[in-house]
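Appendix B.2, paired examples.
Example (i):
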Amino acid sequence: MSEKVEEQHSIADKEQIHPPTYEHEEDEAFGPEPNEEEWGTLREVADTIPVSAFLVILIEFCERFTYYGLSGPFQNYIQNPAPPSYPADQPGALGRGQQTATALNTFFQFWGYVTPILGGIVADQYLGKYRTILLFGTIYIVGLLIMTLTSIPSAIESGASFPGFVVGLVIIGFGMGGIKSNVSPLVAEQYRSKVPFIRTLESGERVIVTPRATYQKIFNMFYWGINVGGLSSIATTELEKNVGFWSAYLLPTAMFIPALIVVVLGRKRYVEAPARGSIFVEVYRLIRMSWKVQGGFDACKPTRLEVENPELMKNVTWDDVFVDELRRALKACVVFCWYPIYWLAYAQMTTNLISQAGEMWTGNVPNDIIQNIDPLVLIITIPIMDRVVYPALRRVGIPMRPIFRITLGFLFASISMAYAAGTQSMIYSNQPNLISAGIQIPAYAFIALSEIFASITGLEYAYKKAPESMKSLVMALFLFTNCLGSVLQFALVSVAVDPKIEWMYVGISAAMFICAPLFWFCHHKADDTDIQDDAIGRRGEVEDAYQAHKPTVADYERDVKHEEA
C-alpha cells in the first residue's frame, strides 16, 4: 500500500506543479509550450474554433429560437380570451386573466432553471453529455407537439387548450433543463488543446495560443448564437396577432427539429468526457471527511491520509487530483452566490421595463417588441468585443480576467437600473404618452453590456473551474442562480406598482452598485491564480477523448478555412 501511495504522491506532485501535457507538440499544427521568458514577451491569442463547436452552437441557436419564440406569446395566450377572428387587435386564447398568466410565466422560468440540476446529474453520473442532450431533446419535442396541437382553434373551443398548455409547459421545461446544463460544457469540450503553446503567424510573429483566450472566444460565439435565436419572438408575436397561436407555436416546434438532426448527424465528431459513475457519493464522503479531520481538504488527500489517518483509508475512493478539482469547483460555486441579484436586475427588461414602455408613446409597434433591443445590441457588440476589444487589450498586456469582467458586468447592470429609475421619474413628471419609448434604449443597451461581462463570463467560469467529471452539474448550479433571481423578482411584486416602482429600480441599482466592489474585494485574488487553477487536472479521461479525436494538420487547416469563411 505504501508503494502505491508513494507512486501516487509523485504523480500528484507533478500534476500540480505542471499542467497536464497533451501530445500536440508532436503535430505540425501546434508548437511547444511557452517558457517563462516567452510568457513575459509574447502576446496571448485565441486558437481557431473546431467545426464540431459550431455544430453545438447551432444546436443552442435552434433551442433558444424555440424557447424565446414559444414563450414570447405566453402572456397573451393565457391572459386574454380568444378573439372572434384574425388578425386580432388583442390576441388571446385561454382567458384566464393577468394573475394566472403571470403565475404560469414565473413558474415556467423557475422550472426551466431548476431542472438543469437533474440534467447535470444524469450527464455526469450516467449517460454523458451527448446522450443526455439527445434524451432530453426528445422529451422537449414531445412537449412542443402537445402545446402546438392543443392550441389549434378546435382545441381552444373544446376547452382542451388549458390542460394541454400546462402539461406541455412542464414537459418543455423538463426537456430544456437537460439540454441547458450540458450544451455549454459540450461546446467548450470541442476545443481539444488543454495547455498553452507557441504558434508562428503568417506575419512571422510568435504568439502564445492559450485555452483561456480560446474559451473566452468560444463562449462569446455561443452567447451570440443564443441572442440571434432570441430574435424569434419578433416573428411569433406577429404570427399570434395575424394568424393565431397555433402558427406561433408551430414555427418554434419546426425549428427544433434541425437541432435534433444536428445532434444525431454530428455524433461522430463530438469530443466528450465520459460519465464518471458514482461521483456524488464520492463528493459527499469527501466533504464529510473534511469536516472530521484537521487540515480540511488537503488532509483528505490519500497521500496524507496514509501517513496521518491510515484508519480512514478504507473509505477512500478518490485520489489527490480529485480533491484539488473539487476544491476548485466549490470556489466557483461561491462566486455564483452573487448572481441572483444580477439576474434580478436582468429580469426587469422582460417584465417591468415592458410595462414601463406601455405607459409611453410607441407609435405603431407593440410595447413588448422593444425588449429585442437587448439581443440586437449583443449581436452587434459581441463580435466587436471578440475580434477587436479583447485582442487589443491582450496585445497591451491587459487580459481581462474573469473576476474583473464580472465586476464590470455588475456595474453596467447598476447603471441600467439607475437609468430606468430616471426614465420612470420622467414619466411621473410629464404626460406619459408624450414621451417616446425609444428613450428606454440605453437601459437595454447597458443590460446587454452587462451580459457580455457577467453572463458570458459566468458560463466560461463555470466550465473552466469545474472538474471534468462535474462540468454539467456545476453549469447547472450556475443556471440555478437565475432561478433564485426569479424568486427575488417574485418577492418584489408588491412594490412593482406606481409610484413605488421608481424606488424599486433605485434599490436594485444600489444593490448592484454595492455588490460590484464587494465582489471584487472578496474574489479578485482568484484572477491572480486563474491559470494555475485551470491547470489542475488529470491525463486520464480527457486525454483519452483527446487522443480519440487527435487533430491533424488537415483538421487544423479545415478549421481555419471554416473560420475564415
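Example (ii):
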Amino acid sequence: MIKTAVISLTVLVTLTGCAHTPESPIVDTPVEMAVAADEVSSAPHFDHAMRRTMEAYDSTGMVAAVQVDGQLVYLDAAGLAEEGTNRPVTQDMLFPIASISKAFTTTALAILVDRGEVEWDAPIRTYIPEFAMWDPWVSENFTVRDALTHRSGLPLGAGDLLIWPDGNAEPDDVIAALQHLRPSSGFRSEYAYDNLLYIVAGEIVARVSGQSWTEFVTQEILLPVGMDQCAADKPLISAGAPVVSGHERAAGAEDGVPTDPRIDFSTTWAAAGGLWCPAGEMMEWGQFWLDGGVTADGVRLISEGQARELWQGVTPQSPRGGLRAAGSTNLAMYALGWSIHDFEGTLAVGHGGGAPGVVSNFLILPEYDAVIFSATNDYRGAASAFNYHVASALVGAPENDFIADWGAAFAAAEARGVEQISDTLVAPETAQPHALSLADYVGTYRDPWYGDVVISQTEDGSLYIDMGRSEVLDGALTHYDGNRFAAFWPDSSLKADAFVDFTVEDGEVTLVTMQAISSLTDFSYDFHDLRLEPVAGRE
C-alpha cells in the first residue's frame, strides 16, 4: 500500500521534507560524515538496531540495507518469512515496496517528458480525454503534476475501497469513479494522500508509450538501473525467487498470521504500489538517484533537469510528528513521487510503503551519500523507526532513540485501538431498538463511485452485508444501537470492523453510511466516503 498516515496508527507513512530549489544540484558535495565511511558498518551498530526494532514492534521478520559512499555497509535479514513455518527471511528475499513504487511512476513519466511526449503541466485530458473530477473546472485544469502531488482536494485515501483490500476495480473503473468522489478541500489547497490518481498516472504512461506500466518500468527503469530481481508486479516475479509473506494480527493478538492471498495487490495497484524488490537492489535505486539519474553503467535515463524536477517540493505537508517532537525536522513537502524534508540540518528524501501485511521505508541522505532501506512483514511501523535511528547515527544525532520512542508510541496506540474494538463488542446499556423490522433493512444500496452493497437476511433472520467489490468484506451485521449496526468481518486481523448506519425516514431506509470502528483501521478502508442509496425496485 501503499499509503501515508500517522505511524502509530496505520503506519503507511511517507517521509516528509523540504525541497531543493530547481537550480540546486540533486547531490551536493558530501559533507564530512559524523562517522567515517570505513567505520560506518560498526559504529552505528546496525545489527543491534535491527534486533531492537524487531523486539519493539514484535516483528515476524525484517530485512535492512545501508549504503554509504557507494559501498554496501550493511545487509541483513532476521526472523521468519512466514509464521508457522521454518522459512526464514533471507537477504535476497523480495518484499513488496508498495508506495515507494510511486517514484518509479514519476520516473517513467520523466522519461516521457524528456522525449517530448508528456508535459507535467498539461491537463490530464490531453492524454485521457474521459478524465473527470467532481468539479467541471477542476476536470478541465487538473494536470499531470496535480495527479502526482496529493493536492487534488479529495480526502485522505478517497476511493481506495475500489481496490482495497481486495477490490476488483480496473484502471477504467478508477477513472470513471473519480468524478463521483466528493472533495473535502479546495483544489490545490491542502495535502491529502491518495492512490487512485497514481493509477491514473500509470494509465498515462501506458497510453502514451503503448506499453503497459509494468512493461515500461521493467524495460526502461528496472533493467537499466540493475534491479534485475525486482518485479514490477507480483505475477512477474521469477519462478523460485524467495518471496516474503505479509502478516496481520487481530487487535491484541500475540502473533501475526499470514495475510489472505485474496488481498494481495492486484495489477491495478501497480503504478501506485506494485513493485517487489530485495533490499540489496534498493541500494541500486538509491545510488541511481545520488548519481542524478545515471545508471551504474554510465547511462543517463533522465535529464539533469528532470532529476531535479522530481525532487522539487510542490505540496506543503505537516512535518512528521515523531520527528518534530524530537526536534529533528521543521519543514516537509511532497514532490513528484517523493517526500522531502529537513532532518537534523540535512536534506532527507524518501518514501514509505504499506502493502498487505508488509511495511517498508526508503530514505536517501544526499549530502551524506547514504541510502537506507528496511522492511518488515508485519503491518506496523518498524521500518521507519529503524531507518531514522540509523540516519540519526549517520548524521551525528545519536541522542534520539526513535526505536524506543516510536515503538512505545505504537504500543500505546495499539492498546487504545484494542480498547475501542472491545467496547463495541457489547451494545451500550442505553442502546435503543432498531426502528424497523430487520426485513425492512434488506435491499441493494448503491454509491456512484463504489457500486452496489447488498443487505440480506440469513436463514436465522439476521442481517448480512455483502460489500460487492470485496470477498473479504462480507459478513453478519450485529445490532448495536437504534439504526446502527456493526459489521465484524470474518477476518479479524484486518482490524477494519465498521459501523453501518441506516437513515430512516417515513418508515423506509433512505441512506446507508459507514465508518470504521477503530483508530487502528487503515485509512484505505474509506467507508466514511460511501453514501449508499437504495436502488429503485429493491426487495
